[in-house]
Amino acid sequence: MMHLDLATRTEGDFIYRTAILNKGSKLNSIKLNYRLSGTNMPERPSSMDGFAFAVILNAMKNGAGLHIHGPMTQLALYNLEELQQAWTLWKPDVYRHIDIVADEIIDKTPAPENKTLLAFSGGLDSTFSAVRHGMKLAGSGSHNIRSVMMVQGFDIGRDNDKFFMKAVERSQKFLESLSLDMRLIMTDSENPAFQDWDDSHGAELACCLHQFSNEFSFGMIGSTKPYNCLTLPNGSNPATDHLLSGSGFTIVHDGAGYTRTAKAEVVARHPLATAQLRVCYEGKLQYRNCGRCEKCMRTYLNLRAVGVDSPACFDVQPDLSQVASIRARNQCQLGELVSIVDFARNNNVSAQWLDDLQNAIEAYAPPQPRNVARTKLRISTKRMLSKGLGYVGLRRPLKALIHRAYEANAEVQSRLPPS
User: Fold this and answer.
1) Alpha-carbon gap, residue 215 to 110, rounded angstroms
2) Cis omega before residue 233 (within 30°)?
3) Lowest mean pLDDT among 272-276, 345-349, 391-395
4) Distances in Å between the alpha carbon of 68 and those of 21, 51, 93, 106, 257?
5) Nearest-CA neighbor of 263 among 123, 131, 128?
6) Could you give the percent of the chain with pLDDT greater than 90?
7) What letter does residue 351 receive in the DSSP assignment?
């Protein structure tokens, strides 16, 4: 039987919460740390719901029962059962159904005003949700978004305060234009030594949202795939995200009725929203867009398709001559490229890059089993290396050191005269 406990403390302007998962002894335990900061400090959650969601896949992978030392809401326990049913069907060789018990089962009413807290990164999905609901574009179905939550420790490392604060500053004007305040949280839960991020990221994000469950009634997660191109299993999706809810606090999966290009069309109506977009995950400076990676190029084409020729979110505009060489790696990526062409054609866009993209789509060939195996081996090797560095405590410090070197080089380059 595994045991889940919670330790909290306040130091200066920070609140620290630590979820402690152990297998019967303090020597065999894993700690997930959360640091909350800002002007609106939340009370301790009245239940352990969020922390249980954060660790459930690890417990299932170990095949051990879970004893939660603290109150749980009945709805969260119902949802944990259903969530297990999904993952044991999706990955029966990885996850096993376990028994869950809690010291206390409580009922919790929603916070007053039915306020919604949006998980926000500055990416296209969360920016779309901020615009859609902040400007009441969904009519009577619009959520009452009052605040956004930005997480340090997922796309920007928990040891990289400088990059994270630059990302926060990048979105400040846009969020102020919608009268949205920020809630900041840092966590080390994204740890490959603990559980598979591809499977757990929705639950780990939901846990961060649950930290504010005494103030908000809803936590919102922006969709990554539309309903007509879902990829399952996936850690965040419209089939199971709602199962990360508890009594009084509901997790909402928003925007799956829109393709990425349709989201770009909504965002593009608002210059501040477009200018602060931060979509890059391969660039060296994580608070900016490199303009060269696959996701930067794809987002650039999303925006070109809706009539934005020089998006302000790119310091260096992507090279349209590279469109012809785009190669989708799977059917889902192919679907995203097709949506760009379809949207552009339906809106009478005519350009060489669009013809090049159409040719790239027609040249698509399903990946061969040998190539799929190579890709899986490469990914597996990278994850094993990352896990090894994580076990000896070097993964985060090395990443922080590399990022500092990248930024120092960028500052040097910015002082050089143009060639």
Assistant:
1) 9
2) yes
3) 391-395
4) 9, 9, 25, 13, 36
5) 128
6) 74
7) -
Burial class (CB in 10 A: 0-12, 13-18, 19+), 298: buried
Neighbours of 85 (CB within 10 A): 12
Q: What is the DSSP letter of 120?
A: -
Q: CA-CA distance, 137 to 143, in Å (whole number)?
A: 10
Q: Are 167 and 156 in contact (CB under 8 A)?
A: yes
Residue with tokens 């190539």: 371
Contacts of 395 (CB under 8 A, 6+ apart): 386, 389
Euclidean distance between CA atoms 226 and 235, whole angstroms: 15
pLDDT class of 342 with cuts at 50, 70, 90: very high
Going by pLDDT thresholds of 50, 70 and 90, the confidence category of residue 27 is low
CA 266, CA 244: separation in Å to the nearest integer?
28
H helices, E strands: number in the chain: 12, 10
pLDDT tens figures, 64-106? 899 999 999 999 999 999 999 999 999 999 999 999 999 999 9
CA 386 vs. chain centroid, Å, equals: 19
pLDDT at 386 over 80: no
Quickly list H helices, 178-219. 197-210
Question: Is the predicted pLDDT of residue 378 greater than 70, yes or no?
Answer: no
Q: What distances in angstroms separate CA 119 from CA 85, 127, 219, one per listed residue?
A: 26, 10, 7
Q: Which two tokens stand for residue 121?
A: 């990164």
Q: Distance (Å, rounded) from C-alpha 79 to C-alpha 14? A: 31
In order of their start, the domains of the chain are 2-106 (no CATH), 112-254 (3.40.50), 279-362 (no CATH)
Q: For residue 419, what pLDDT band results from cuts at 50, 70 and 90?
A: very low
Q: What is the value of pTM for the model shown?
A: 0.89
